[in-house]
Specification:
Layout lengths: L2 H6 L4 H13 L3 H9 L5 E2 H8 L3 H13 L3 E6 L2 E6 L2 H14 L2
Antiparallel strand pairs: 1-3, 2-3
């Protein structure tokens, strides 16, 4: 295979940029903890604060980053905001990453 043929297999530059930005989100252990906490349960900010032993402002900041990256979603329940994983892909990404580091 020559270099020209190999170049044809590269995704578009914008897709590569977007993928790199997505993986940057996973580069913070606090965000990873939040995602793991949301694996099985939909949780409020207060519940996440208790689970992670963090302040509300710290958790809210990380949730905003995760929401902007479309990794979590939320719904309002009365005065509470309940967070959950955006879709099954988030769990798959983390599961595969964990499997890779445990090999």
């Amino acid at each position: 295979m020559n270099t020209e043929t190999a170049k044809k297999f590269l995704p578009e530059e914008t897709s590569l940029y977007d993928l790199a930005e997505l993986y940057k989100i996973f580069g913070d252990s606090t965000r990873i903890k939040i995602l793991y906490a949301l694996f099985e349960f939909d949780l409020s900010v207060g519940e996440l604060c208790e689970i992670l032993n963090m302040t509300q402002s710290a958790v809210s900041h990380q949730l905003r980053v995760l929401k902007n990256a479309k990794l979590v979603k939320y719904r309002k329940l009365g005065k509470s905001v309940i967070y959950s994983l955006a879709d099954s892909h988030v769990k798959t990404i983390l599961d595969q990453g964990m499997e890779h580091i445990n090999e």
